[in-house]
Specification:
This protein has 1 helix and 11 strands; from the N terminus they run ββαβββββββββ. A hairpin with a 6-residue loop joins β7 and β8. The relative contact order is 0.20. By secondary structure, the chain is mainly β. The structure holds zinc ion (ZN).
């Protein structure tokens, strides 16, 4: 898994393409994809703060990122539709993994080469 809670990601496809937000939750579900008609029912989904807002009972007003009125909430986005934003170079990037000498796993930005978090 290359994306974790607290990461900032950019949406790379769909109607929210280009939006950025913080990952609030990573969800692994076998059924979620099937229920929502996605091609990959085993996919991992993420909740991204302020992105892919669905509104119940009330029309969206003004800035969709505002947290007022808890009728609006974020719907999960398939992980293949988001890319990690590197905190060092601020670009949507792929990440590489490597192990440190003491066995911890590190993520590294493939664009600027910096270690992530
Ligand atoms: Zn970078």
């Amino acid at each position: 898994m290359h994306i974790k809670t607290g990461d900032t990601v950019e949406i790379i496809s769909g109607e929210n393409k280009g939006d950025r937000g913080e990952v609030q939750r990573v969800m692994r579900s076998r059924l979620a994809g099937r229920q929502q008609g996605q091609p990959n029912p085993d996919g991992v989904r993420v909740i991204v703060a302020g992105v892919n807002i669905i509104t119940k009972h009330q029309r969206r007003t003004g800035n969709v990122r505002t947290q007022t009125g808890r009728i609006e909430r974020e719907a999960p986005i398939h992980i293949s539709n988001v890319m990690l934003i590197c905190p060092s170079c601020n670009k949507a990037t792929r990440v590489g993994h490597e192990l440190t000498a003491d066995g911890r796993k590190l993520r590294r930005c493939k664009k600027c080469g910096k270690t992530i978090e």
